[in-house]
Amino acid sequence: MADQLRATGPAAWAGRWLTGRGGGPARPVVCMMVMGAGGYRSGDYWRYGVPVLGWFLVVTLTVVPPVWQF
Q1: DSSP notation for 16-66
Q2: Tally of CA atoms within 13 A in the half-sphere of 16 that contains its CB
């Protein structure tokens, strides 16, 4: 793992880890466990995920340009 970390850089590795892309094959199992225990349906991920994604997009587009000017 140390070789992979150096090859991609710590910022790229941290970004993947923070966004949940480092979960590997265990992530779908966890999602299914949460769905079963909480009584969620597949549509609940869309119903709650799309507004959160929209909020994230708005915040990112308003914060990033003033902080890191292009």
Answers
A1: HHHTTTT-TTHHHHHHHHHHHHHT--HHHHHHHHHHHHHHHHHHHHHHHHH
A2: 11
Q: What are the tokens at 19?
A: 């966004």
Q: Which has more confidence, 22 or 56?
A: 56
In this prediction, residue 16 carries a pLDDT of 67
Residue 66 to residue 51: CA distance in whole angstroms: 24
CA pair distance 19, 1, nearest whole angstrom = 18
- Print the domain residue range for 46: 25-70
Overall domain count for the chain? 1
Kindly indicate the confidence band of residue 49, based on its pLDDT and cuts at 50, 70 and 90.
Answer: confident
* Amino acid letter for position 9: G
pTM of the model: 0.46
